[in-house]
């Protein structure tokens, strides 16, 4: 009797707002109190109410379905509402693949910056600089298009002092990149530290961490990942890519009120985003779906599985189109 009563009670942040479904089949009313489909914000470090948010979504869905009769605008709106989830994960997949390619290209360029620069085309890394010069001996330090830092100061004698200067610039750039990474994270986005996967699991299970998937965290972590990887620190890109993909999913979800204003529904997009992050990290779209299903997600309906696979597949395709390694790889880990 007690459990039946508890299951019949709906909570709304400040307390009890009424009784649940009274058996008449209507999901839009909790007893004698109507449930609004509007957003109810959770506090920081709180856990969402899955049943309440899913009930709100049912109310919203019933409201949208009732507008189908208003042809053509009501019908078009209902069709858009039904397909908005696919559009959202498409955007997330495209953005995740693009960001993965940009991060990898930027990390390679800044890593080569420790050794020198392409004098004629400074935006090229060493490999592409020597390719553009049709010089095939760049691996033996004989690339004429690539200029070392001592040579930039007109010192071309290959003696001990030359090697010392090379070491000085190499270590100096490494320390500068690592220090800048720490400074950016410390000052602008403390949540950008670490891999982010443990926190992503907590968020997907229903925990609210304000700012952890925000735009500043996304920007600083993207820049910091480039700098940290280029500095030579023993860090990988795989874990942070899952965090970045979930940041993208969180940002794009606010373009769709169906997901942005409902924390439970938003986690469907975040689950697909996590799959896209694993996809671009390891080149394994199916592996990304399995990671999201088995390791990360708490709420994972069947439709989310298909959307996760679609999102992961699109992310892998975009990364391959960008082709940062010039080898048609679909992962950011160079083999």
TrEMBL record:
Pfam families: Voltage_CLC (PF00654)
Subcellular locations according to the entry: Membrane
Keyword annotations of the record: Chloride, Ion transport, Membrane, Transmembrane, Transmembrane helix, Transport
Topology term for the membrane: Multi-pass membrane protein
Chief site of localization: membrane
GO molecular function: voltage-gated chloride channel activity
Membrane-crossing segments per the record: 77-103, 167-192, 241-257, 269-293, 305-325
Superkingdom as given in the UniProt entry: Eukaryota
Gene Ontology CC: early endosome; Golgi apparatus; plasma membrane; synaptic vesicle
Keyword tRNA processing: no
PANTHER family: CHLORIDE CHANNEL PROTEIN
Protein name, entry field: Chloride channel protein
Species of provenance: Syphacia muris
